[in-house]
């Protein structure tokens, strides 16, 4: 049987460490730099597992020699592990804390974390006859767009939403055991070596997704566009689309959409006769409804105002 959902906010690193001690012992927490420290935590404690969401800013966490494997899924923002690699939304990052590690959050970020009890995970993986990688856990990245990865991510979201909506489920030993066993099994399948991201084939796949998405965006700049709709059209998950754009466009999908729309407005204004069109007319044609924000973004991008472009 689990414990009821717990929620808290604190701007005190010591208080955060004390509260989190129910799932992670010997946690060392500090401000990463001078300035505001903030954490907002929602936690469900199961008999053999902890699931929690963390919204944090200016946070540095150090821990070692824990008997669990942590699966961390960034939802917003970015964090670093051991100052060697930055992680962003787009996949599940596996941290094996038999070894010391340090997680650093600078800007405002959100993440969903599952702490799997290592002996049970090993037992279930063996029963399912699937292997798990033992090396390089700090850099390990699970692809949430494989069939196994999608199943794990869907089920984790389902479990988390149900617990947050009806914490009475946590009081049923049967329900919590069934949910835990399923979560462990799906994670073990997603963690098998063939599901690991990083091969040339995976890089080629991300490149193709970025190219196909760009083609669709450019052809539909005057239409209503959202990243989730684009991902659905490509039959991939939003995290995979996000990762493709970060890797090959060095931006997010919707920032890319805005840039392409600004470029389209620029082309129309530079080719237009000032007395035949208005800036508002052209901007609204490409989805810019707030003229103040549009003008600011336009000048930041092209180094001149829309009026200056139209007069040229």
What does this structure look like?
The protein has 312 residues and is an alpha+beta fold. The chain has two domains: 3-195, Jelly Rolls, CATH 2.60.120; 199-312, Arc Repressor Mutant, subunit A (Orthogonal Bundle), CATH 1.10.10.60. Helices cover 44% and strands 22% of the residues. It contains eleven helices and twelve strands. It has helices at 13-20, 118-127, 147-165, 173-190, 200-219, 227-234, 238-248, 253-271, 279-285, 291-302, 306-311; strands spanning 3-10, 28-31, 38-45, 49-57, 59-63, 68-76, 79-81, 85-87, 92-96, 101-105, 109-117, 141-142. The strands form two sheets. Strands 1-3-4-11-6-9-12 form a seven-stranded antiparallel β-sheet, sandwiched between helices. A five-stranded antiparallel β-sheet has the order 2-5-10-7-8. The longest helix has 20 residues, at 200-219. The model is unreliable at 133-139 and 195-199 (pLDDT under 50).
Which descriptors apply to this entry?
44% helix; seven-stranded antiparallel β-sheet; Jelly Rolls; 11 helices; 312 residues
List the helices and strands and how they pair.
Blueprint: E1 3-10, H1 13-20, E2 28-31, E3 38-45, E4 49-57, E5 59-63, E6 68-76, E7 79-81, E8 85-87, E9 92-96, E10 101-105, E11 109-117, H2 118-127, E12 141-142, H3 147-165, H4 173-190, H5 200-219, H6 227-234, H7 238-248, H8 253-271, H9 279-285, H10 291-302, H11 306-311
Antiparallel strand pairs: 1-3, 2-5, 3-4, 4-11, 5-10, 6-9, 6-11, 7-8, 7-10, 9-12
Query: Percentage of helical residues?
Result: 40-55%
Strand portion: 15-25%
Structural class: alpha+beta
The total of helices stands at: 11
Specify the CATH architecture of the largest domain: Sandwich
**How many DSSP E strands?**
12
SSE string: EHEEEEEEEEEEHEHHHHHHHHH
What is the total domain count?
A: 2
Unreliable stretches covering 5 or more consecutive residues: 133-139, 195-199
Across the major sheet, the strand order is 1-3-4-11-6-9-12
Output the CATH topology of the largest domain.
Jelly Rolls
CATH superfamily of the largest domain: Jelly Rolls
